[in-house]
Every structure is written in C-alpha cells, then in structure tokens.
Amino acid sequence: xxxxxxxGKVALVTGARTGLGQAMAVALAEAGAEIVGLGPRPxxxxxxxxxxxxxxxxxxxxxxxTDVDFEAVVAEATGKSEKIDILVNNAGTIxxxxxxxxxxxxxxxxxxxxxxxxxxxxxxxxxxxxxxRIAGRIINIASLLSxxxxxxxxxxxxxxxxxxxxxxxxxxxxxxxxxxxxAIAPGYMETDNTAALRADPIRSDKILDRIPMRRWGxxxxxxxxxxxxxxxxxxxxxxxxxxxDGGWLAR
Length: 251
Hints:
alpha/beta, seven-stranded parallel sheet, 8 helices
C-alpha cells in the first residue's frame, strides 16, 4: 500500500469490540498491521474479521471505568505483541441527563473512560515508544462536542473538549521523539451511543437537516482517516483534530 502500508506494525485499539473501534481495527489490519484490542468484554467478531485477513489479533480485557494500572496493561500488551507502534484511544461512553441531575458517579465514569484513560494509557504507551525508539502514531477519538456545547451530556462534552486539548499538548511534547498525536472528531455516527437519538424520529430529523450529506455516518467512514493518521504518509501531521462529520461543522 506504499505510504499507507502498515506491514510489521502493531496497533493497540481500545473499544474495538463493535462500531467505530472495530471499523478502525479492521482498516489497520487490512493495511498490514497486527491488532491488540482492549475492552471490558470479549471481541469475538472483531477477532474473526481480523484473522480472516490473515492478521494476528490479541485481546486484553480491561474496564477503563475503574482505577486501571496502565503500566501493567501496556506491559501485558507488549508481552503479547513485543511492541506498540500505533495507539487508537477510541473507547468512550455517554450519559444523558440534565446538568442539574448529573450524579457524581456518572460524571466520574464518563471522565474515567473518555479522558483519564486516554491520558494515562497514552503516557504508558509513549514511554514504551520512546524507550524502543519507535516513530509512533497516537490517534484519539474526539467528537463534534470537542467544538460545541450540546445539551444534557455535560460530562461527555467536558471530556471531549479535554481530548482535543490533550491531543495538542501531547503533540507538542512528543514531537521531539518522532511521535505524532492527532484526533478524529466523528459526526453523528450509527453507533450504540446514538441509538436513542436515531430511534427518536423528531430528533433524528433535526440532526439530518443540519448535516449537508443528509445521512448518519457509518463506522467505515472513519477508516481512511484512521489509516492516514496511522501511516507513514502522515509523518508531518501532528496536533490536528480532523472532523469526519458529513459537513456538520461547515453548516
């Protein structure tokens, strides 16, 4: 695949069981990468799809909402795969409630998965990359809510603004080590997080009216963006947040 080939690379993808994470893991495998999937539940479908491509798939079960020892997680991952060249921080969750009704436990759960794990997993992976002198690629999954406020998703909005800011900071600090850090901001995608919105015909119609392409995004729509940011072709791209939103932010 020329500058987009990933043969010999290993990618650690969080939240790879379904949806966006699965689509990106498969895309990286199609380009030649071996995949380590990280999540709280088994990823049988993802494993099958990647192995059908003739690629290796390793699985780490880990609940990112808890107090995780990320150094131990990365040690286990490198024990299975020898190294990590690419990290995709995709795992995420959402809690819908009016601001006045958000409970501390729900705030903490969203922030732990969406932001805290991004910081500490990236820290542990970056240490391994630097020690091994790997020209690494770190890809965070931001959101349209990295740019906007939204309603009834206070913790999610705060976490995704944090992801965008953290992406830029990490890009500055890790550039001297030849590690790039970028983010993808998906628009309204057909995933579990938007199931309630898509099931509400009034809310769904309002969302589609705002999207110039007049459709919900599909997980595969993120594949080429992830492939570009993971590949040698993006070696001079860092600190960016790339919207994949059907034109939402342009409206």
